[in-house]
Design goal:
Four copies of one chain form a homotetramer. By secondary structure, chain A is of the alpha/beta class. Chain A is built from eleven helices and 17 strands. In chain A, strand 1, helix 2 and strand 2 form a beta-alpha-beta unit. The first copy, chain A, is globular. Chain A starts with 5 loop residues before the first helix and ends with a strand.
Amino acid sequence: MLGSGFIARFYADSIQGARTQDKIVSVYSRREESARKFAQDYGVSHFTTAMEEAVNYTDAEVVCIALPNNLHEAAVMACVKAKKAVIITKPLGRNAEEALRMMKAVEEAGIFNGYLEDLCYTPKFLKALESVQGGALGRILWAKSRETHPGPHSEWFWDLEQAGGGAILDLGCHCVEIARGYIGKDIKPVEVMCWADTQVKPIPAEDHAIGLVKYENGAIGQFEVSWTFRGGLDLRDEVMGTEGTIWINNFLRTGFEMFTSGKGADYVAEKAESNSGWLFPVGDELNDLGYNHMFADMFNSIEQGKTPRETFYDGYVVNAVLDAAYRSAKSKLWEPVKLPVWRGQEGVKKETAFTDYDDQYYLVKEEITHYGATKLILKDKQSGKIVEKVKEA
Amino acid sequence: MLGSGFIARFYADSIQGARTQDKIVSVYSRREESARKFAQDYGVSHFTTAMEEAVNYTDAEVVCIALPNNLHEAAVMACVKAKKAVIITKPLGRNAEEALRMMKAVEEAGIFNGYLEDLCYTPKFLKALESVQGGALGRILWAKSRETHPGPHSEWFWDLEQAGGGAILDLGCHCVEIARGYIGKDIKPVEVMCWADTQVKPIPAEDHAIGLVKYENGAIGQFEVSWTFRGGLDLRDEVMGTEGTIWINNFLRTGFEMFTSGKGADYVAEKAESNSGWLFPVGDELNDLGYNHMFADMFNSIEQGKTPRETFYDGYVVNAVLDAAYRSAKSKLWEPVKLPVWRGQEGVKKETAFTDYDDQYYLVKEEITHYGATKLILKDKQSGKIVEKVKEA
Amino acid sequence: MLGSGFIARFYADSIQGARTQDKIVSVYSRREESARKFAQDYGVSHFTTAMEEAVNYTDAEVVCIALPNNLHEAAVMACVKAKKAVIITKPLGRNAEEALRMMKAVEEAGIFNGYLEDLCYTPKFLKALESVQGGALGRILWAKSRETHPGPHSEWFWDLEQAGGGAILDLGCHCVEIARGYIGKDIKPVEVMCWADTQVKPIPAEDHAIGLVKYENGAIGQFEVSWTFRGGLDLRDEVMGTEGTIWINNFLRTGFEMFTSGKGADYVAEKAESNSGWLFPVGDELNDLGYNHMFADMFNSIEQGKTPRETFYDGYVVNAVLDAAYRSAKSKLWEPVKLPVWRGQEGVKKETAFTDYDDQYYLVKEEITHYGATKLILKDKQSGKIVEKVKEA
Amino acid sequence: MLGSGFIARFYADSIQGARTQDKIVSVYSRREESARKFAQDYGVSHFTTAMEEAVNYTDAEVVCIALPNNLHEAAVMACVKAKKAVIITKPLGRNAEEALRMMKAVEEAGIFNGYLEDLCYTPKFLKALESVQGGALGRILWAKSRETHPGPHSEWFWDLEQAGGGAILDLGCHCVEIARGYIGKDIKPVEVMCWADTQVKPIPAEDHAIGLVKYENGAIGQFEVSWTFRGGLDLRDEVMGTEGTIWINNFLRTGFEMFTSGKGADYVAEKAESNSGWLFPVGDELNDLGYNHMFADMFNSIEQGKTPRETFYDGYVVNAVLDAAYRSAKSKLWEPVKLPVWRGQEGVKKETAFTDYDDQYYLVKEEITHYGATKLILKDKQSGKIVEKVKEA
């Protein structure tokens, strides 16, 4: 484990979760005090403030990078040098250039590489994806992911040099990959329009942004990210297809609702902005946020010699989309997504899915009226004229 | 009443609702058959296929225009000529040019003019607006309105000449005015970025669009509109401020949930895409969609010589925003909102709302840790450096 | 209007609501100060502390009784004497004996009598009832109504002599009539089992109770009432039938959700236990709680010479059920509902609705397995033996 | 593993879940075909139709009983004979007599015994329980658990001899233990009132029941169970205390909502009554229904020599409560819970928690009025008189 902060602890809780086979054997942190505390809390036998020492630790078969963004590349390169399997927290790089270098390095070294995109492993996402891929929603037209909260926990996020960006990089990386999953990972993201602003926080980075990602097949991915949201951690996804829709709420409304006057002794609610009134706890954060399924996929893939669901390549594509978002926020233009490496389909056209009603007409809409009759809106294929027909029930 | 179609019937249900004082005395429709049926159903003593006849009908004190978009201007001008109070369905015009002409005409004629923007009269909107205006959410940062469904009922909507546009004009007009209400009607909308596409329907107009409206004070309005949504009528609004958030669901999730196997004889569910499985009826559509509060405001305003909440001026501002959206969808640029007439504030700056922690620091974030201590993220006013402080509980 | 307290004001808001034809012309209260204030607030020209004076007031065509329970009978008798139409708040009497006397008196006098059971007029209830009566849920098996909150507003509720009971009488009267509506008003309630206790409040009456009401056709009505609930006003109904279910939430979850830090100046949330954190306002309380539809039914019925949905007879049946509940809470036995007057069906048997699968078997259950096959659980009509059959898809 | 049916497969999925240390080494089923299929599907090396052979299988350290109710006792006795640790599915026995014999046998043999009550291990329950035990709800007044669905999967449930009961035994065992958890496992359940009926299914056992369980401290547990519910698997719990409330929805509303027209090829929704319209899938059934946390507790307890959360003793207490419920359903009386063995507190009195306002008054209720003032309802300690006081804001 490289890192001993907030996310490292989430990872450790999951990796060393109930009844797992997997154990953390060494931990690196820049601060000895943090490394020691982490080692104690998780029963890790070895800790160090020398990154290479942790990476090269003999018993360590896999290196898990849970460090601030500016340390990702150095840590990856250490793994490359040591020829150790590497899994890394999101975002892969601070930009696509860093990400591409890391991707090329691990691939040339032939080492296992996994991208720890936990929100693409939530049980709800996995099940929704299965439905989408099974055709339950028809052709996907739009996929939105929203992640907003009152701001990150650790101080380095607020420092532009270390973080490499603000809410777009921190939260948008999740949203982009979620939408990409629904629309299809082999469909090319072609251009991005993004609004971003620093509305509230005294920082140089953006604390609120909204972006649209256009895919080659005409589908639209949307992200809404903010560090200024009040009310807790808002994690919602929506997908729209020609045959249906999916709405997912991962955190604030999951069927667990509590009212407390706050008079109960010693009670502190986790992750909420208050500890009285109506609260919405999450049952099993580690599982519901995808950590368990993510590490299972990673470790199973390593053992079985498979490619995991999320790799450095995916991290690189996400970085490329976010780079375009940053450029767009400045230029106020739709900016092209620059993908020097692209492994999906090329030249996918927008489907022209006009539904035939009969030889003469396209079907525009069919609905049941208040009177039980079926009303049809049709379009003449030749003249383009719209007509209305009613079929009595 | 000018018009006897879908919306005219909604209006009539509301105007002649239980125990009201207000009665419809004449109805005009282009088709005699429709006019006669409407007159019968609502007990209207006079019907006609001559618009001027209805407008000039002696007993009619107010003219209610519920006609396709391309007939709005002619109908308004007839009212101007007759010096009759006029209330008109949304959108005011097919574009800002038409809207401005209508606005000028009614104002010069000195007649009462009301804009029938029902979704700015829903009980939830009115109560939410009161909270927003009372400061419960602090400074408003973002307001989104979403209206999507499987497509409009009447055939003229699908005809670009009559309708003047697609989902943006039909649904976006609601969304723009809702967001404008939350952000402040005196705050100028300055520019618009819009994506629009015809993804599914065999029509020249857009069937899906997403737009961002930037206001002079830095706040963002967002609209999401579609005629291709599957699942019913999705009407949701969200507002985010520095001190809170509001989520409104006007239709699909209002605390009324029904499962039916569909075996019940003769049962047809209204307004849903299916009549079995889980259904989500709305208790009182007329009231919940704002019609009752809207007509009460209009008629009370007329009697009391007041300006109603929504006037032709508001309709014109909305049209101007939508015009910018259409230009943006084509140009792919942020397009300025052109407002030859503007009656709100000018030159409002973005608030720089940095919160002081003490003389040395700004407060970036305060949170309660798992251990009950208070953690502060602070920014040094001089150096810009981010630091973390923990206050033990 | 007889009464000027909390409920009288709710009634007045509704009766004199936007654009109505109906006006309050006189108000009686025991305290002159209250009567005067009410008269002022609602523009009522006449007020008095002499009940008969208000009842006999010439311009008053209908007397609306909104007084504490112990004054109901006297007020009704005054209306009987004056031969004035009378509508009365719930519960009709403090017990069935009082209720029956009132019912007989108004019926013998031949005056219009309406029972102001607002929760049987909520838009959701009315629409749900229509679905139930249309067969969407099949045969009704169980109907539950829950009304709980932190206790009533006015002091007389807490006084057993004036109120006649505690939470059962105050809230159970709603719940019993709601369940009766779904099950069928012509189906006889035959016996009641009730648990009641004073768990929290320093009062002689019950502050929490749960009751089961058995109907002649085997259906079960259930009520859950409490004055000790924390979290606001919890108003939920559920109905279960052989073909479906309905869940209604009238207050705490209606698609309107707000988070506020509470820093907003001067903001006070109505009807909630707190004014910060997550709040759940109701859009239009008067309409959503049924007041508007209730008064429309009453006044329309008077004008059209019809019987309204809820009459003194209904109030009397409810009182009889609640009397049985009180007896049961004491005796710990299922207590018979004593109905000296009963106008519904007699001798309705439980339906034995075994579903035939074929000549040999009854169908117990049919389900689709994970593999897409249809699995049947059948029961041999002769031997009673249960067998399992799988039909491949 | 003893058993290879529906529940055995759920258990196996969990025990052999992703990355676990735990493996199934032998499986017994009455039918060789089932045993073989199970062994194949889960990679179990040994299968048999001789129960003792599986129990005595050398590599098996723990015996997991997942058999029909009528086989529980024989299987437990085999484990006792073999001195093997035993964990058993719910309910422990078909009645308390069987349960008590099993409990005594395992305790005398000194073997580890665990009761597989999965719904007391759902992440939501565990977190809610922590809040309750931390005092967030104050003193618990009422705890309800509802489990209803359209009927069990396997044919033996429908056979009274094998199952030992209907919906009460099958589903009520969960509900009773959940409520007992919230109220306190050391608080004695003293009596039960239960209504039960066979409303729909052609079976001798009950298909619908509602019960109230009175605890020695005055708290009330409530269960609502049915095999006739339409709409899916309804699993909801509610708890009410003097300081708050908790609402849990474990299945039908968990923040995952899908609409599908059903046109998607080959799509079948699991666990729902339909595969089109609005569907409500569950993200991770195994985890959300408690299986993972349950087996982790069991296996960790065995390794650490601890008592698990749920033991045979708990299973026996539940059976004793359900026996009282069955007696009550017949006798129509509150029936005492017979507990020849009781290990909790004795003689716990109802708390008389009157809140002092000052020396003269008890506080009945405090609320904030529309005008911002604080209104108090007080009760004179001497006279018992109720008074109202208003404190201006």
